[in-house]
Amino acid sequence: MVLVIGGIASGKRTYVRSLGFSDDQMDASVISDAPVLVGLEDLLRTGDLDEQQMEVVARKDVVVCCEVGMGVVPLDRDERTWRERVGRTCTELAARSERVIRLVCGIPVTIKG
Hints:
Helices cover 35% and strands 23% of the residues. It is an alpha/beta fold and 113 residues long. The radius of gyration is 13 Å and the shape is globular.
């Protein structure tokens, strides 16, 4: 699995397309058969992924997640909890990943692999 992270509008989807995936192969649902999961951070709004969901996510070809932990720390406790949840989930997925790519200004930076 390739984990692709980066800020909003940093070129993550464009990078995934450069890997040979089309928009039709990208979906925001864990239960989808699409090989690319986009918007992981949105899936984590309501809580952690259970172990079964984490296994399904880890079997995707590509997982795309916006970095949400950089910048001003929100005053709202729920927002802080969500940011931590996203960070911990990405940490676990990065450990399971073959490659981790961070997009900065449209430039892919290899973190792992």
